[in-house]
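INPUT
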Amino acid sequence: MAKYIGLRLVQSVFVLFGLSILIFFIARVVPGDPARAMLGYLATQDQLQAVRVEMHLDKSFPVQYYYWLRDLFHGNLGRSAYTKRPVVTDLVQYVPATLELILFATLISLVIGQAMGILAGYFRNSWFDGVSRLVSYLGIATPSFVIAILLLFFFSQILHLAPSVGRIPIMTQAPPIRTGFMVIDSLLAGQFSTALVALSHLVLPAFSLAMIHIAQEGRITRSSIVENLGKDYITMHRVHGIRTSRLVFKYLLRPSIIPTVTVIGLDFAFLMSNAFLVELVFMWPGFARYALTTMLNKDLNAMVAVVLVIGLTFAVVNLLVDIVITFLDPTIRIQRRGG
Amino acid sequence: MRQERKADFLATLAQRRRTLAKGWYKYSRNPLSVLGLVLLVLIGLAAGLAPHITPYPAQAGAYTDFKNAGRPPSGEHLFGTDRIGRDVFTRVIFGYRFSLLLGIVVLGLGVAPGVVLGLLAGYHRGTWIESVIMRVTDVFLAVPPLVLALAITAMLTPNLLNEMFAIALLWWPWYCRLVFAVSSSMRSQFFVREAELSGASEGHILFKEMLPNCLAPILTKMTLDMGIVILLGASLSFIGLGAQPPTPCLGTMVADGAKRLPGEWWSTIFPALAIVIVILAFNLVGDGLRDVFAVEEV
Amino acid sequence: MVAMFALAIGLWCHVGLGAVDNVAVINGYPTITTDPATASDWYDTETMYNLYSPLVYPTPEGSVRSHLATSWQAVGGDLTHWRFVLRQGVKFHSGYEMTADDVAFSMTRFIAMGQGNSGPLGKVTATVVDKYTVDFTLDKPSAIFPESLALFFPVEKALVLANIKKPGNYGDLGDYGNDWLGTHDAGTGPYMLTANIPGQRLDAARFMDYFEGWSNEGWGPDEVPIDRLVFIMETDYTSLMTLLKSRGLDLEINGGWTLPQLQQIQANPTLDMTSCWAQNVTVWMNAKVAPTDDEHFRKALLYAYDYASVVGPWQAFGNGETGLILPNMAGYVPIDPQPRAQNLVKARQELALSKYANNLKDVKVVYHFCGGLDFEEEVGLQLQADMAKLGVKVEVAGPPWPQFSAECSSAETTPNMTIFLFAPQAYPTYDYYLFDMFAKKGLSWIFEAHWYFDDPQIETLLNATRAEANPVARLAIYTQLQPLIAAHALALYPYQKPTLFAHQSYIAGPQVSIPFVGPSENMHNWRINLTLKAQITGQ
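OUTPUT
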């Protein structure tokens, strides 16, 4: 087991390097003038050229990569041409915001998705099953930003509640930053009302993101439950008089955990870069929005850093998922050891 | 000699027809699957016959009428008009053409390589072949779709064709992973060992033995993906990549109209409903197909 | 369960806030920097005018008046040597008085850092003459030097020098305080920076000792200066509308509302709209690429375009017509077509005179706009529909910004037609709309009209504007230039698009409308009516 993890870690490092080279190449191929992006419209040709030399843009590609790599090992990811701050500062500010959102969305999708799937599977072909199938299809088909806009509209215009945009209301004092997670930081600072408000601001955007996963997980869980309900060992357990709830949680859910966990893992990393439309609508100061902005402004240093963060997230999450699956499914464990 | 071959050929044909008939019988047991098929056929017909069945076919092209912009649904304009004054109903029907084309081409281009690579990786599990393929897959998965799409369409010009190419390039890793998961568990099963022992070529094992068992999850994912591809096209169109105006593309219409919610709801809701219906149809068909295949599984 | 409960409590907290705050929440475009030496585009200018004071201040007519400098003159007669006399008693936010030392330091710093708005000034050397007089020596004579100082914001020398970070790009001077100025200010403006998260949120508080004072003259009895500013930087207008309606947002200065939203705002009795400046919508035509290389063809485009259609619904919000400069500027000369309407007859005539008259079916006009912008797309689609009536194919595409801006960096790669909205953001504004865009030594990139033609007479006149010290004579040249340039038909000017500031009715806008970026967003010119606010929010 440890050997397997070690091997995967080494492989992940290689993947990240490959990724950095790929994105380095792409970033320089994509059109746009980073010097112009940095200096603005009134810059003269001399000024632009000076910045290009400073950013090593006049040198060959391998030389540029070498400079970047050297800086990386000093913990320096360069300066963002767009925010004019060290990229590391930007990352520290924006990554936790999106992480908090995605974690909450994953939690919601797990709970609601599983519940919906279990009930639909257990009460197969009932009205509930039909309704949940409909909800699934709608959830998959509707873009998350349309859900976001509709939710915002519904809460503000129909229910006449104050719109919960941003992480906390504009005029609320933010707690001192310790983890970057607004809810946790507020609790740590003893600002309980702020923590609650932050939580309430998380609900709508997280739900918009979670919708499609609720739909997918509902379907996977449902079909797995349906598939297993008819199996012999379930009938045996029933004959022995085991309680339904225990039956569901201990025996029926197990087989569906693996595809569920895999899907959650992949989607978690996917969301890091794709949550930007929801972040835009809810004015969430997050990483996905930052990623979009840097790409559209050809902010070289930030672009490369952003892709590395996403790549790292993928690598870490994939590794975790694989480890969890190995624990859950003994056959895979055996295969890995021997196969 | 020729007589024998002809007889063989006819026999195979008859067998195929029987399999199809059996398959259809099973498929048609489920009314929802039939509904899905019917919907798909209707949509396909509508898309094909678009210029003949829509009230204002010219408005799917170079047409502006700002005086009539933003009109709610009425007798004249079933789905209202968009911000340029064009009839939304006409554009939705024409939009089916482009969106379906987008989905089919992307999946066609993206699924095949992904499946082949996944099969290879699964079969050669534990060797360097698998490691290389899967790590390359990881790299591609980690690049944000936006960056890749930006880069590709930037090197080429932004239009529907290049957008399809760019999205297809993003798609294959998911199928590779999926097929890898399924095929690697099949690797050690008896029927594969048997085929190897009896001297079958690798190609035969991959495509005749392993692939049919992967078909079910592939098909399911493909039907789910149709919608996602169309919607991804929308996000890209949002920032200027992809189908250029005035091409009606359902995803683009949704992204465009989203800025006008909730006031001019018709310019988003109707294209969105159109997408939902086509995805629903694909899903129903996909579910039906899976039921058909399930029993035939080894 | 927990989430719903939290939602309920959160709402209760919202409702609970009752006190009437003297604060204005303002939405602008994301500002990138609060260092005046690196500030580079119109959104940075908006912040600069609040936290800092420029040396001279724009006037409504397009020239400049005294501000931090009370008077100036060219010494020695060759327009390379300028002497500025400074106002006395101007306080920095730290409490210290501004002197010539600070101004000279600021200019040296501005030029040394070589970014943002310093480009057009060239190499300027600053010397202190006495406590309130400073000399600037230029490397090239420039009659418009004083006007260009409307984007020069002096900083406090001692404070900046005390906060340099080493190592930096400027040797002993480290990073020249660039990092520190990102989150602090060393200015003299009406508001002081209290907190800044770049690209996201900026907080500022009123500077009580601001040198212009906070007189209530001309304002109503309940209208008081705004004590605190909170700048947020959001770009999704659906969410902004929700925020505006629920009074979470007080003022919006980016003006990206859609037409239906503007109509909603107009209809709402508790919301107001103020229009200060407008953008000159300009469609450049590339005279080096077929078919727009033919002057008659270009003229045909000008006549074929239906000016009333796209613009029609917008007319309710502001005057439409525009030309090489904005109509509100003195000396504006209307250009063809007059009257401003589609004239297909004349368009056909021009097409017949062009060298493509016999193979119109084979030509293709490529129109590019920056992807995601609706108005620019609509202009293109209108043009496409209009030219289709004449049998000419127009291809409309909206590549994303990096690609679009890269295309526009050379004459060969720029498409036939490209559209930009030029805000009056550079000073002097006449120079920006004329010299910068049409003179050989003008700005390049998206301001590139001068790539496309060669006219010695126009070139001479444009150079003369920079050498003419007398502002009246200079204006005469500007007036003379416009019809000459317009004769080349290098651009289509569909519309003067007003930037509409939507705001709550308890926030009141500038008494004097100065139609340029910066002065309009200077919150020193805005007031808040707290009684009205209490009434409206209490209801």
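end of record. The CA atoms of residues 186 and 256 of chain B lie 46 Å apart.
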